[in-house]
Amino acid sequence: MRLQFIDIALNLTDSMFRGVYRSPKQTHPDDLKNVLDRARDVGVVSAILTGGSLSESKEVHALAEELDGFYSTAGLHPTRSNEFNESFINDLEAFIKANRFPGTSNGRVVALGECGLDWDRLHFSDKPTQIKAFTEQLKLAQKLNIPLFLHSRNCHDDLVQTIKSACGDNLPKGCVHSFTGSIDEMQELVSLGFYIGLNGCSLKTEDNLDVAKAIPLDRLMVETDAPWCSVTSTHASYPHLETLPDEYKLPPAVKKEKWSANAPVKSRNEPGFTPAIAHIIASAKNVPLDTVAEVAYRNTRELFQL
């Protein structure tokens, strides 16, 4: 029986999936349907679309409503913390309450986020502004008893401190997605009850693969963060793809200028690569692919109540 996968981080409203890259000009036709068909062909049965602002959260929710088995998050990304104002939390709370899954008839919101801290990109928003926006979202997650979808970049100690200061002993559940930290950092997050999401950016180096190997299976999730975070030939994880079973492989990628409806676009990640991420993790852990696929699927359904 074909394995099933859930991509927990997918930026499906990005213009790349409409054929628009760094310029306003459309390079190739809108191929969202082709992308989703390829994902289903390799066993990706569901995905969570990421919201990084209130307007984006509404956009991804609307798209998730159109797609069978798709869900969304709602929150404010740390690099957009300058958008935080006095009305934001009230507006976010109202949107989540009106569109929460499974509490509303058509609701697809399963987590609050993407929220957190990012000390690598302070040119977008300074530390105090990020901490304030994150703190208020943490309190809202507590109030609504909704899982967190967390972002952490070069800020581990401050992230943990902010979570503990805002939430006390009543820590919300959640997942730290696109994890790139150390084994010690991973272990602390796991000890706090969080899951760890891995994608291509999480698997670039041998140290990253050591972290992947160390993550307890009952805390693991898989993602692509497409159209970003693809696995490239320079990554330590790349050789593991040689043993990916054929039934989970996508066709060879082509340059966007030579677009084909039947092939991925080079340098544009897509949800159909989710099995490849699971396979790299399984290879690093020296366990069968079905072990990683099954636990990641189960963990995702359990945390987000799918």
UniProtKB/TrEMBL annotation:
Example of a GO MF term: 3'-5'-DNA exonuclease activity
UniProt-listed InterPro entries: DNase_TatD-rel_CS, Metal_Hydrolase, TatD-like, TatD-type_Hydrolase
Cellular component terms (Gene Ontology): cytosol
SUPFAM superfamilies xref list: Metallo-dependent hydrolases (SSF51556)
Superkingdom as given in the UniProt entry: Eukaryota
Residue numbers binding a divalent metal cation 2: H151, H177
Keywords: Hydrolase, Metal-binding, Nuclease
Positions bound to a divalent metal cation 1: E114, D225
Family as reported in the entry's similarity comment: Belongs to the metallo-dependent hydrolases superfamily. TatD-type hydrolase family.
Annotated protein name in UniProt: Mg-dependent DNase
Organism: Wallemia mellicola
